[in-house]
Structures are given as structure tokens and as C-alpha cells.
Specification:
The protein is an alpha/beta fold and 129 residues long. It has helices spanning 25-30, 68-80, 110-121; strands at 42-47, 54-56, 64-66, 85-90, 126-128. The chain is built from 3 helices and 5 strands. The protein has a 5-stranded mixed beta sheet, with helices on one face.
Length: 129
């Protein structure tokens, strides 16, 4: 005859839920639900040097490159529409491109300047670069 088991029930597994990739509110909202809504989207934005200008990208009809000040306007509209994050794609000038990627380490490069501008004006905006 078998004896009844008197072991305590197992605790829930896992003991903790690591949130290392979900520390910011915008990234938690991206993975929270299974329905698609504006809060689930990331807006790709193409950035170029300059001031108050936009240039169409010939290979991508309807898509434009924006100067950093124009990116700020795009970001404001994205937040108003409920889109929590932007992914920045810079147009690095050919003369700034080197085999060792030196421009990427420049704290005054196009992406760094644009990131600082956006975070200063819209700290709640998620940025991917």
C-alpha cells in the first residue's frame, strides 16, 4: 500500500520575473498585450543634417529625411497619435564614413545631436538608434 504524500506544494515557477528589457514604461507597453494598437508601434524616422528641411527619399516613395528640428515635430505628432518610440536612421555624409566607423563614436554626430534634442524636449519618448 502506498502512503499519502505529505510534501508541501511546489511554489510557483519562476520565483521572479526579470524585467531587464522592460524597465521603461514605453517598452513594457510594447510587450503587454496581444492586440495591435498605436502603443505597439515604432516609427522609423530618417534623419539628415540641416535645419528646417525635408528631402524625399527616391527609393522609398512617400518617405522623407528630416532635419533634427523637423524630427522633433514628427516625434510630437507620433506621441499625440499614441506611438511611444522612434527608430532613427541617419544619412551619414560619405566624407564622414571611415573603415573604423569613427563618426559613430563622435558625441556630436547627427544621431547624438538628434537624440539629445528629442530627450530634452520629450523625455517620455522611447528612442532607438
Amino acid at each position: 500500500m502506498s502512503q499519502p504524500c505529505h510534501l508541501p506544494p511546489l511554489p510557483p515557477f519562476p520565483h521572479s520575473r526579470p524585467r531587464r528589457l522592460r524597465r521603461a514604461a514605453w517598452s513594457r507597453r510594447l510587450v503587454a498585450e496581444h492586440c495591435l494598437r498605436p502603443a505597439d508601434l515604432i516609427l522609423p524616422v530618417f534623419v539628415m543634417d540641416g535645419s528646417d528641411c525635408e528631402v524625399s527619399i527616391g527609393a522609398m516613395p512617400g518617405v522623407v529625411r528630416h532635419s533634427p528640428d523637423r524630427v522633433l515635430r514628427v516625434a510630437e505628432r507620433a506621441l499625440e497619435a499614441g506611438i511611444p518610440a522612434l527608430a532613427l536612421f541617419p544619412a551619414t555624409p560619405l566624407e564622414a564614413k571611415t573603415e573604423d566607423g569613427r563618426e559613430a563614436w563622435n558625441p556630436e554626430n547627427l544621431v547624438c545631436r538628434t537624440l539629445r534634442l528629442l530627450k530634452r524636449q520629450l523625455p517620455e519618448l522611447g528612442l532607438i538608434a
